[in-house]
Amino acid sequence: MRRRGSRCASALLTPREAANGVDSEENKKKKWARLEKYEDLPEYLKDNEFVRDHYRCEWPMRDVLRSVFSLHNETLNIWTHLVGFLIFAWLTVVSLTEETTIKNFTARLFWEDIGWFNTTTMNESSRSDALYSDSYARHFSNSPLLIASKDSSSIIPLWPWFVFLGGAMVCLIFSTTSHLFSCHSRRFYYFFWRLDYAGISLMIVGSFFAPIYYAFLDLPYWRFLYLSFITSIGILVVITLLAPSLSSGDYRGFRAALFLSMGFSGVIPAAHGVLLYWDHPQVIASLVYEIAMGIMYGLGAMFYVTRIPERWRPGAFDIVGHSHQIFHVFVLAAALTHCAATLIIMEWRKVLHHV
Ligand SMILES: [Zn+2]
């Protein structure tokens, strides 16, 4: 039983009341699918007072599912991360099925763009020869969990790359489902937002795995230290955010600070890696991408916390352009930038391992 005054306007008539003639069946259907104004929402759904209208409120599951394809204030929040999930799912399929495609993908998108690396390391054909020159290497390169080089001593595992892809996919699909389903009921609201926070933590932890694993491949002690540190912090953050009260709008800044500090703790292993390999241009290139990623996450968090631009013109950005949508786009761009940084560091490690 919901508390008095906690129901949204469209749910004022129950199906039984409607069946008893309080309202016609036709009117009831219209009301169930009606979008609500902020002031008509129950307290738990009141998250952002600057988004004034177009809320789905306690809709039945069938209508919630259909709302993926209709316009409301969560449509773009759903789609920005659904598209992101599909991009990462594609990257995973490509990584699992076609080694050479990943190689080309790396080379074309993130390597050859930075032309000076070609002269400082080796040209494309010789690098290609070094990595895929004999049948033995080709045999190993068919294994999706390994990147093979010239001999078995230069095989580097691909699993940290899949940990990152998996974390990103989980985060993006949890975010998509949270934005879709949390309007259904109070229970769904608290369940899905906590699921969303767990997904964000998982993506941050997963993002650390590949760069740290490959950068500290020859330093197992440091590798273990950094990876167990970020995993422990991730678990602590998830446990902290299980408290339902922390899902409210009042704790928006606290949540952003928690996730940002998790992400920015990566500065320590990054500085360590640069100290070790400061004369390796690929490591510096990867660092440049990681700095770009940090700026994107920072900017995204700034929009998330300040709720710009909707605070300047409440109601004007309800469907398109409010801060959460901008935040989602920054998160996706940052995750793809991290993807680039990781591919560069993997390519560097393959070549280094081979020499
Ligand atoms: Zn979101």
From TrEMBL:
Q: Which domain of life is it from?
A: Eukaryota
Q: Which Pfam families did the record assign?
A: HlyIII
Q: Which GO terms describe its cellular component?
A: membrane
Q: Where does Zn(2+) bind?
A: H179, H324, H328
Q: Which UniProt keywords apply?
A: Membrane, Metal-binding, Transmembrane, Transmembrane helix, Zinc
Q: Which GO terms describe its molecular function?
A: metal ion binding; signaling receptor activity
The main location is membrane
In Swiss-Prot or TrEMBL terms, this protein is called Heptahelical transmembrane protein 2
